[in-house]
Task: structure prediction
Amino acid sequence: MFEHSTRPKLYFATDSIAHGSLALTFSSLAHKFFPKTAEKLQFLGALSPTSLSVIFDKLLVDLLPMASAIRVFTEFIKSGVKVLFRYGLALISMHKKVIKNGMFSDGGMLWGKIAELNSEANFSFDKLQLIAFQKVWGKSLNQRGFPRSKQLARYFKSHEEEARGINYRVAGSSANETDETPPLIITNSEHASAAKLCTSATARKSIARWVPRNLRGRELDLVFTTNVHGRALANLYLALEKSRGREFLTLVEVLDGNKGPTTIGMFSDARWQISSSVYGGGGCFVFKLSPQPKCFVWGGGGGGGGGGGEGGGGVEKMSEKDEAALELFMMSNNEYISMGGNVEGGAALRINEDLTKGFSDKTSMFGNPELVEGGEFEIGTVEVFAFKRMY
Result:
């Protein structure tokens, strides 16, 4: 169930029982070192295998700034899964007051808050590292040393039977499996009543599954809609410039009288703006929201299929030209906004300057087909949501 070398050095759990055993071991250590804080975490479900996938499946990438996550990964390569235990527990220790005093609806929201705190300017990875590798954990009579690798292996083994009874969705599993992710909420802002493209809980639940885990505790704030701001790309840029958001969700209504309502869109990890160069990063993805939800994420050369999404089918081996188009994330000027690209000059999704026509092509970058059959389409409503901080 665990993949390891000839030394007692564990790395990845390869099945649901092993994932459950990791989570149960982590929960046991949290209760041992921080009993009161762990009670709050347990109550919120933040110690469930699903919630802890942010540590053991994604290697803390969603919880730490990228530079810090890379340092953790370097230590993980050297020492194995015990590094993830140390840093995961260190995050609990560092943010104990927030955990115990904060108002959270579930474990995802709590981990999202921790990710937000870690992204602030005063976050110190060196301080986190000191906590993670301290010799003694806990306080007063509860002080204990951190388990060695062989001890952790025994913990994993002892929790296997209990883990057999756990049913949860691990990262990368089918969207048809049981999913505890709650739908995102549309905040009661100035233009909230004008929202029309993701008013159903089903649609917002799909979006919640696709976005990075640290955004799942945020509310959607409608900052631009053609029904209020008009059909002009300049107005979209202006509305986003006024927003405090850093990540945005763009929804596009496809007008096709023959096939009924269709909504497609794109998630951007940067604000849309006039730019002479490509911007954005690997967090960007495109999707089809209705009638059959599916998202296509950047594969970093693998043609999609990583990150928080479900889709991104496999692609054939790429040519050098295809590889050159793998980082065309966000492109925008006075004439259009677009995401994703291919060697023919097409885009996974492109919207023209008066927000009336859209274009979608197959791209190796996201591994997506045409989001709309035929590639070119008329646009109804366009809505852009910012991810608003709830704290």
Observations:
- The first helix runs from residue 16 to 33.
- DSSP finds 13 helices and 13 strands in the chain.
- The chain has a mean pLDDT of 82.
